Every structure is written in structure tokens, then in C-alpha cells.
């Protein structure tokens, strides 16, 4: 099974930039699997199913376990450049709250930060997030399950070797849901607008408080 270097559309955000920060809300063009920087494919992937379906596998710079991307999901990628940095756990809380607040303003209520870096609706996961950082960059991205097929996640991913306490050993089918399954149908352009104001607030906050 070939694992390619990460080259999806948000890859350009990893390059140095003169701005304080940028973000991109995008939709995968096709189904693929993305493994974390420290992932071991033999522990996380169902290689037989991936090969049978001809699904491409990429390796990203950020940590965390493997994820499935599909055209029924949204990917949110954020980059902050050239500023004093805070702890990774604080970035997760800051960005995840921004995502939840942006969704709430377009009528998607009940989302909350759970575990180390998840966004959940009640006891079920809606989004996984991850961070990559160096001395000049903090890169955060989230995979938001809008209407993705959870059975596809179960097909390509094994039970993860690491999981948050609130998962409690549940299978992908028992643990993961989508906004569609919960009765929501958010519009991407509306979320993009609301998250933009949240992102600008984060940049301003970090500039005033930490720089």
C-alpha cells in the first residue's frame, strides 16, 4: 500500500506568509485516508479494503490518528504565522470553541470540545482536529463530518490505538456521527462567513495578549 506525502489543497498554508494568519474551508474532491505524522499504518488501517477500493493514502505533518476524508465532509485548515505561541492544548480549545460558536450562529447547536481535541455532539464525535507547529507557524485543521458515511470510516480504519476517555472503547459506528444524522443541514458559505469573524477574533486576541 503506497502512502504519499501530504499534498491536498491546504498544503500551501504550511508555507511562510507575511500575514498574521490564513484559513481555508474546503471539501475533499474524492474519498481518501490521511494518517498522522506518528501513525503506524498496520495498527490503524484496513489495508485490504483500502487497496480493494483504490483509495489513496496520505501522510500529514500533524499528529493524531488516521482519518477518512470524503466529499460529504468539510475540512477547516487554519495557519497562524510569526507570533509568540501558547500551548497546543490551548490552541485546541480556542479553535474548537470558534468552530462550535460559528456553527451555533447558523443554527447548529449543542457542539462542544471533548477529550483532548475532538468536537462532539453529546457523546458522539463530529470532528477530529490536529496541530502541527514550528517556531514560525501553528497549523490547525479539523475534519467536520457534515454528512459522511460512518460505515466508510469503519471500512477503512481499525479501532485506533489511542482514544479519548469519553469514547469508552466504542466502535466507529457507535462513536462517530454526522450533522446530517443529527438532523442538521448547514450551508458551507454561511459557516465560512461566521468562522471568518471567529478567526479574526483569534488573531486579534493572540496579537494583543501574547505578542
Protein described:
The chain has 211 residues and is α+β, with helices and mostly antiparallel strands. It has one domain: BirA Bifunctional Protein, domain 2 (2-Layer Sandwich), CATH 3.30.930.10. Helices cover 29% and strands 27% of the residues. It is built from 6 helices and 10 strands; from the N terminus they run E-E-E-H-H-E-E-E-H-E-E-E-E-H-H-H. The strands form 2 sheets. A 6-stranded antiparallel β-sheet has the order 2-6-10-9-8-7, covered by helices on one side. The protein has a 4-stranded mixed β-sheet with strand order 1-4-3-5, covered by helices on one side. A hairpin with a 2-residue loop joins strand 8 and strand 9. The protein is globular. The mean pLDDT is 95.
